[in-house]
Design goal:
The complex is a heterodimer. By secondary structure, chain A is an alpha/beta fold. In chain A, 30% of the residues lie in helices and 18% in strands. Chain B has one domain: Aconitase, domain 4.
Chain lengths: 420, 167
């Protein structure tokens, strides 16, 4: 069996599971974000009274933090009331950040667990060797009642990534490249394991970027064997015991792909599809109205550093905005301590509250019709970041920073680094 | 399980949840308000032309992107008779079944259906009859558990039975 299958088998009280089998698995931790007030309504509609375990469910206010409208304020109000009534141990209000960053920070994510959240990017937690998957409101309400969820045991695709990235190219470029090669429906209903020498060498943040965007290929979950960096990160944040379930050597993958990224250029997903990917050399040098660095894909310290390194001592183009939203308050403090926040503000950046920001078009920098945005976030669907008449280019934080500086979509490797 | 008959509205591949239900309306909770934006990102004129019972036909990976249940809720309250696609994104698929929406995976569907054709969806047999062309199109039967959920009219009625037994 694969490690993913072993996780599912253990959680459903079985010795073995096979591909295609439907299992009912116990959920180790569940999270509801602030788009999903419906989960509370559905919980009561289905006869729910007390959640199955007050230590294993949390709410994270990230999509509307702080509330931009009266309706979203009402959502927060009703959720806070539920959290208090149910006596939930963990709660992440508007002063924390994006769920996929704050949960690992809070030590509720560990190797071998099953994490279910009302957010498609829950695949992110494969970075920690966890089985993370997204569900909708009603599925979540059934977990809140029973602590279980049914899963189809998925086929598993192996993506081996080897080599060392050239200077100026980032993990985001790697996952965009793979997405472009395999397509937006390459892994529908399947799981993806990322492995290879590149993956083994990666830090926690870069691993999260790659697993985060596995869902853009339709993946149910993503998996990476935890490396030393992950073990250190998790052990520093939780005392909970865990073990790493290993894939059997004779396991047969449904599909296998091998990529070498040693010669990779920065990549761009041009409108309006995540798999419409070209190397920067072939991307149109469009005029850019806004650059965005943030969200669960591109708002970590490493991402903010990449922008600060490029923009230190310079000014962004007068016709371009740069919106920076750290993934969490912890990230914000760290970036501040390291001087990146000051570098970016002096360069002309606009900082906003840690959370999802304009990634899904709710607030904090949405786009008007005809505007162009280069973004370190994850989706460029029509209307995703505001008007359906806007054009969104997905790229690395370095490419987004270069666009802010020059006012055009350009290769970040052509920009001289800022002064120290 | 009863059959569904309705007029087909045909869409392409990778119709994502932002096209089915744009993110700027996510704070809405009233079902009729949610229904008024159905498929707005893909075709803003659809709601005027759509009558309850009509059928959405799509290519591969229908419902990809966000986990928002609004994408299924908007179709439910617009009165969609069924959604037939070459494949579905996983979270949308679960959400729709949970809400009791008739879904069928039909790998050849967009080749065999034109906009406006009258379709009959037979969920029990897992097939679609195109009444306009007379052709029968084979689909994939749903899993037993999914059929059980649909037979109850969605997962809420099924869970109400379970929570009643827990007391």
């Amino acid at each position: 069996m694969h490690a993913i299958e072993k996780i599912l088998a253990r959680a459903s009280g079985k010795d073995t599971v096979t591909t295609g089998e439907i299992v009912k698995a116990k959920v180790d931790f569940a999270e509801v974000n602030d788009l999903y007030l419906q989960t509370i309504y559905s919980f009561y509609e289905m006869g729910g009274k007390k959640v199955w375990d007050k230590d294993k469910l949390c709410f994270v206010f990230d999509h509307y933090a702080p509330a931009p409208t009266i309706k979203s304020a009402q959502i927060h109000k009703e959720m806070r009331q539920f959290v208090q009534e149910q006596g939930l141990t963990h709660h992440f209000d508007i002063n924390t950040g994006v769920c996929h960053q704050v949960m690992p920070e809070a030590g509720v994510v560990w190797p071998g667990m099953i994490l279910v959240a009302t957010d498609s990017h829950t695949t992110t937690h494969g970075a920690f060797g966890a089985f993370g998957t997204g569900v909708g409101a009603t599925d979540m309400a059934t977990i809140m009642i029973s602590g279980e969820l049914w899963f189809r045991v998925p086929e598993i695709i192996k993506i081996e990534i080897n080599g060392q990235l050239p200077e100026g190219v980032m993990a985001k470029d790697v996952i965009l490249y793979i997405l472009g090669k395999l397509g937006a429906d390459a892994a529908v209903y399947k799981a993806i394991e990322f492995c290879g020498s590149y993956v083994e060498s990666l830090g926690v943040a870069e691993r999260m970027v790659i697993c985060n965007m596995a869902v853009e290929m339709g993946a149910k979950t993503a998996y990476m064997v935890p490396n030393q960096q992950v073990l250190e990160y998790v052990k520093a944040r939780t005392n909970r015991p865990f073990d790493i379930l290993e894939t059997d050597p004779d396991f047969k993958y449904a599909e296998s792909y091998i990529f070498d990224i040693s010669q990779l250029s920065p990549q761009v997903a041009v409108p309006h599809s995540v798999d419409n990917v070209v190397p920067i050399e072939e991307a149109p040098s469009v005029k850019v109205d806004q650059a965005f660095i943030g969200a669960c894909t591109g708002g970590r310290v490493e991402d903010i550093k990449a922008a600060a390194d490029l923009l230190r001592g310079k000014k962004i183009h007068p016709h371009t905005r740069l919106v920076v939203i750290p993934a969490s308050n912890e990230v914000f403090l760290e970036a501040n301590k390291l001087g990146y926040v000051e570098d970016l503000i002096k360069a002309g950046a606009t900082f906003s509250t840690p959370g999802c920001g304009p990634c899904l078009g709710a607030h904090e920098g949405v786009l008007a019709s005809g505007e162009v945005c280069v973004t370190a976030s994850n989706r460029n669907f029509p209307g995703r970041m505001g008007s359906t008449g806007a054009s969104v280019y997905l790229a690395s934080p370095a490419t987004a920073a270069a666009a802010a500086l020059t006012g055009h979509l350009v290769d970040p490797r052509t920009i001289n680094k800022g002064v120290e | 399980m009863h059959n569904v008959t309705g007029k087909a509205f045909v869409f392409g591949h990778n119709i994502d949840t932002d096209q089915i239900y744009p993110g700027r309306y996510l704070e809405l909770v009233d079902p009729q308000e949610i229904a008024s934006h159905c498929m707005e990102g893909a075709d803003p004129t659809l709601v005027q032309r759509f009558t309850p019972g009509d059928i959405i036909v799509a290519g591969r990976n229908f419902g990809c992107g966000s986990s928002r249940e609004h994408a299924a809720i908007t179709l439910l309250h617009a009165g969609v008779g069924a959604v037939v696609a070459e494949s579905f994104a996983r979270i949308f698929y679960r959400n729709a079944i949970n809400l009791g929406i008739t879904l069928l995976v039909c790998p050849e569907i967009t080749k065999e259906v034109n906009e406006g054709d009258i379709l009959e969806v037979n969920l029990g047999e897992g097939l679609v009859i195109n009444k306009t062309t007379g052709k029968t199109i084979k689909g994939e039967k749903l899993s037993d558990y999914a059929l059980e959920i649909l037979a109850h009219g969605g997962i809420k009625p099924l869970f109400r039975k379970i929570t009643a037994q827990m007391e």
